[in-house]
């Protein structure tokens, strides 16, 4: 979905309540607008990138889990768009969401390079190649 699309992630146009709505970040406490600067619905904090588990990805409806969704990875689509991957700290369900234009770039880069900074093999093996 392009950032110029006025529909939210669910495919519905945001209503007037979500245009003026906000939520408190479950991790850092920041008060966050429900819409990002592009007008798309936001489901995570732009500062720490954490979220709350409110949607059930498997059943496709709302979730009563309410656990904290921590950012664990970045996925890059063929067109180059970045997607943020979250994992729930209570039930381990994973979800994805679009990266918003005002998301913390430093935190995004830390998440993106984490696999390179801590590979599952010793880095001194490169000296032998």
Q: Can you characterise this structure?
A:
It is a single chain. The chain is α+β, with helices and mostly antiparallel strands and 129 residues long. The chain has helices at 16-20, 105-117; strands at residues 22-24, 31-33, 51-52, 68-76, 82-88, 94-98. The chain has one domain (16-115). The protein contains two helices and six strands, in the order H-E-E-E-E-E-E-H. It starts with 15 loop residues before the first helix and ends in a 12-residue tail after the last helix. The model is unreliable at 1-19 (pLDDT under 50).
Write a short abstract of this structure.
The chain is of the alpha+beta class and 129 residues long. 14% of the residues lie in helices and 22% in strands. The chain has 2 helices and 6 strands.
Question: Key features?
Answer:
22% strand; 2 helices; disordered N terminus; four-stranded antiparallel β-sheet; 129 residues; 14% helix; two-stranded antiparallel sheet; single chain; alpha+beta
How are the SSEs placed, and which strands pair?
Layout: H1 16-20, E1 22-24, E2 31-33, E3 51-52, E4 68-76, E5 82-88, E6 94-98, H2 105-117
- Our count of helices gives 2
The largest sheet has its strands arranged as 3-4-5-6
User: Could you tell me the radius of gyration in angstroms?
Assistant: 16 Å
Number of strands: 6
What is the H-and-E element order?
HEEEEEEH
What is the first-to-last residue Cα distance? 42 Å
What portion of the residues fall into strands of 2 or more residues?
15-25%
Ranges where pLDDT stays below 50 over 5 or more residues in a row are 1-19
Summarize the biggest pleated sheet: 4 strands, antiparallel
Q: What percent of the residues sit in helical stretches (DSSP H or I)?
A: 10-25%
Mean pLDDT reading: 82
Q: How many domains in all?
A: 1
Oligomer: single chain
Q: What overall form do the CA principal axes indicate?
A: globular
- Class by alpha and beta content: alpha+beta
């Amino acid at each position: 979905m392009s950032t110029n699309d006025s529909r939210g992630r669910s495919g519905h146009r945001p209503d007037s309540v979500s245009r003026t709505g906000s939520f408190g970040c479950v991790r850092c406490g920041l008060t966050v607008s429900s819409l990002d600067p592009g007008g798309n619905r936001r489901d995570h904090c732009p500062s720490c990138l954490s979220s709350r588990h409110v949607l059930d990805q498997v059943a496709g409806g709302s979730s009563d889990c309410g656990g904290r969704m921590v950012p664990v990875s970045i996925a890059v689509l063929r067109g180059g768009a970045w997607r943020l991957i979250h994992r729930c700290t209570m039930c381990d369900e994973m979800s994805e969401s679009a990266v918003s234009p005002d998301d913390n770039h430093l935190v995004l880069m830390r998440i993106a390079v984490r696999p390179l900074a801590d590979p599952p093999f010793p880095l001194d093996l490169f000296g032998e190649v």
